[in-house]
Every structure is written in C-alpha cells, then in structure tokens.
C-alpha cells in the first residue's frame, strides 16, 4: 500500500438539512453537493483533498432511504482543528451532545468526542 491508508469516510444521516447545518456550524466549513451514481443517495461532501497526493482525507454525509442506520458504534472519524475544545463546546447548541470533553493524549495532542443529531460519534483533534 502506498500513500494515505484512509482516503474517504461516510457519515450516514436521516435528515440531510439538519446534518449539514450541524457539521457546517460545528466545524466552520461549507459542504458541497456530490453527484451520486445512485438516485437513492443524497451526498454532501466535506472540503478536502480526494486525490492520492493531497493532504488530508475527505468524506461525505450520506442520506439514503434504505441505507445503514446512523449512530454510535460505527467507525470513529476524527476532524482536526486548532483547539478541539471550541467545536466540542458548540455541539449541544447545534442539536448534538458532548460525549467527552477535551483531554490530553500525551505527545499526540488533545481530543474530544461529540455525537451529531443522528447519534454518530465523531472525534475532534488538535495539537493545542
């Protein structure tokens, strides 16, 4: 295997408008519609490099009528930032829930865990 081992992620949601608003406000980003080959899928992509040589990983919110159920217990995706306490502090006001506040992970920086309004647990990471 060459390059990045993780190249894409998907967070399954039941209400795209609600999920889009939550993530855009939580992470201070703008999600863009992503064409799907399946008309039963609705996707909003996070900003980030999707090509092998790019920095970081990208992914999308996915809404599908008969798709996987959202919620805790799936893959944990970590979003980076300058201070993970800032977005963690916004989660509850945006309809999510703070699971674990900012904590040290030694030389690897700090992390926090929140749930989005669909119950998906996501990690937040920062070096400060």
Furnish the topology, listing elements before pairings.
Elements: E1 8-13, H1 16-27, E2 32-34, E3 41-45, E4 58-64, E5 77-80, H2 85-90, E6 97-104, E7 110-115, E8 121-126
Parallel strand pairs: 1-4, 5-8
Antiparallel strand pairs: 2-3, 3-4, 6-7, 7-8
What is the CA-atom radius of gyration, in angstroms? 15 Å
Using the coordinates above, name the CATH class: Alpha Beta
At the third CATH level, what is the topology name? 2,3-Dihydroxybiphenyl 1,2-Dioxygenase, domain 1
Instruction: Give the helix tally.
Output: 2
Label the CATH architecture.
Roll
Average pLDDT confidence is: 88
Q: What is the count of distinct domains?
A: 1
Elements, N to C (H/E): EHEEEEHEEE
Instruction: Report how far apart the termini are.
Output: 31 Å
Number of strands: 8
Ranges where pLDDT stays below 50 over 5 or more residues in a row are none
Largest sheet: 4 strands, mixed
Binned, the helix content reads: 10-25%
Structural class category: alpha/beta
CATH superfamily, by name, is 2,3-Dihydroxybiphenyl 1,2-Dioxygenase, domain 1
Large-scale geometry: globular
Output the strand order for the largest sheet: 1-4-3-2
Q: What portion of the residues fall into strands of 2 or more residues?
A: 35-45%
Give a structural overview.
The protein is α/β, with parallel strands linked by helices and about 130 residues long. The protein has a single domain (about 10-125), classed as 2,3-Dihydroxybiphenyl 1,2-Dioxygenase, domain 1, CATH 3.10.180. About 15% of the residues lie in helices and about 35% in strands. It has 2 helices and 8 strands, in the order βαββββαβββ. It has helices spanning about 15-25, 85-90; strands at about 10-15, 30-35, 40-45, 60-65, 75-80, 95-105, 110-115, 120-125. The chain is globular, with a radius of gyration of 15 Å. About 20% of the residues are buried.
């Amino acid at each position: 295997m060459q390059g990045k081992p993780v190249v894409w992620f998907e967070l399954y949601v039941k209400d795209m408008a609600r999920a889009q608003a939550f993530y855009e406000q939580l992470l201070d980003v703008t999600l863009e519609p992503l064409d799907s080959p399946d008309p039963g899928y609705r996707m909003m992509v996070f900003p980030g490099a999707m090509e092998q040589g790019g920095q970081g990983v990208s992914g999308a919110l996915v809404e599908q009528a008969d798709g996987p159920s959202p919620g805790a217990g799936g893959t944990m995706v970590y979003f980076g930032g300058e201070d993970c306490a800032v977005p963690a502090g916004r989660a509850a006001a945006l309809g999510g829930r703070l699971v674990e506040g900012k904590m040290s992970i030694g030389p690897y920086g700090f992390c926090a865990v929140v749930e989005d309004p669909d119950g998906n647990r996501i990690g937040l990471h920062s070096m400060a």
